[in-house]
Each structure stands twice: as C-alpha cells, then as structure tokens.
C-alpha cells in the first residue's frame, strides 16, 4: 500500500478475543506501569486487613496481580473466562483455584471472600448489566472485608485521548452512586486515584495501544480514526523530546466495604 493511502486507512476495531487484540494488549502491558502501581497500592491496603483468609480475583487475566497478592492469603480463587488468559493464569498462579465462568455464571455463594478484586474489567460488561454485577461482587464479600473495583480514571490524558475520537470514558464513581441509590444495600466507600503512565517507544507501539483503548472505548456507530488523524493527535500532544510518546493513564480504586 502506498504510504499516503496507508496513513488514510482507518484503524481496525479489534475484538476482545482476537489474536490481534491479544498482541496489541501485550504492547500496552509492556508499555505501562499500571500493574506495578496497582500491586503496590493494593498490598498497602491489604496489610491492615484484620482477616486475610480468602482472596477472589474476578477477571484475573494472566495472573500478574493475582500472584503478587495471593501470598497474603491462605486461599486464592480466580475467575477468568478467556481461555488463553486462563492458561497463563494457571501457569502464574499454580496454587489458585481457577474458574472459567463469567461473573454472572460463577458457582460461588454469598460472603465467600475477605477481599474481592475486579481490576479493569467493567469496560467489557454491557452497561445494563453493570449494576447487577457490582451487587453480586459486593455480595461475595465477608463482613469486615472489602471489594476493590479498578478502572482508568476519567481525569487522565488517556481518557482525554478517548474523548478526542468520540469515546466516553468509564467513571467508577458512577457505579458507586448507582449502588448507593439502592436503599437495601449499605456500604462504606472510598475512591483513590493513583498516577500511572503509558510510555510507547514508537508510533507503531502507540498505534497498537490506541487500538486497545479505542476498540472498547468508541461506540460502535462511530468510525475508528485514520492513522493520519492518530499520528497528528499523538505528535501534537504526547510526543517526547527524546522520542516516543508518554500519556498519563491514572487508575481509580473504588473500595467498598459492606456494613
């Protein structure tokens, strides 16, 4: 393809379970400190918990965070419906009980865990299902325990990048507020934002990361941007003097404790 035609071509919208998404997501993971920052913050919170018997990681992915926190608990249960990710999870967390079901289909009873983690999962859940899913997650928490839901902060450069192409960033505080309006559910909550960054070494890496962010962040009725549009936005806003691109992708940690 001629260079000018290539730059006018639109990015492909990637399906979550496709090999292309897996490859692009791998580029995102190697380019960000989100997991490292999340592990450090979560370990700090867990250190003060009075009981650390059972840890339930919902949407555990490849198990990097799961494994880093599992050593703080006697028992670890991990949910991961994606087959490829589940294989990595089983390798990384050989002592965890790994379930293949989704949140809605998991054969788990109420109040089974001292700590429930749901990290960067709600993007992939239909909006109509999010409140029932959040209720179910909170129902798995034992008295004195906590649920932590992690999403990208809507007040970061990555979220502004998404808005530039018509996307609407998720806001975990909206989930909290929807749950709070349900009178029969009583809980305490805190919301903490921690700084994280994406450091893409090249435009090719930045393009792959953009595909991950935009594929789930732009409504289906909107077109993905062209390579030229993407390059213009990245160069004008995120290009670093020494090369590469740096974008803040801060994380919001919503802690819910049932009363």
Automatic annotation (TrEMBL):
<protein>
    <submittedName>
        <fullName>Methyltransferase domain protein</fullName>
    </submittedName>
</protein>
<dbReference type="InterPro" id="IPR013216">
    <property type="entry name" value="Methyltransf_11"/>
</dbReference>
<dbReference type="InterPro" id="IPR029063">
    <property type="entry name" value="SAM-dependent_MTases_sf"/>
</dbReference>
<dbReference type="GO" id="GO:0032259">
    <property type="term" value="P:methylation"/>
</dbReference>
<dbReference type="GO" id="GO:0008757">
    <property type="term" value="F:S-adenosylmethionine-dependent methyltransferase activity"/>
</dbReference>
<dbReference type="Pfam" id="PF08241">
    <property type="entry name" value="Methyltransf_11"/>
</dbReference>
<feature type="domain" description="Methyltransferase type 11">
    <location>
        <begin position="56"/>
        <end position="149"/>
    </location>
</feature>
<keyword id="KW-0808">Transferase</keyword>
<keyword id="KW-0489">Methyltransferase</keyword>
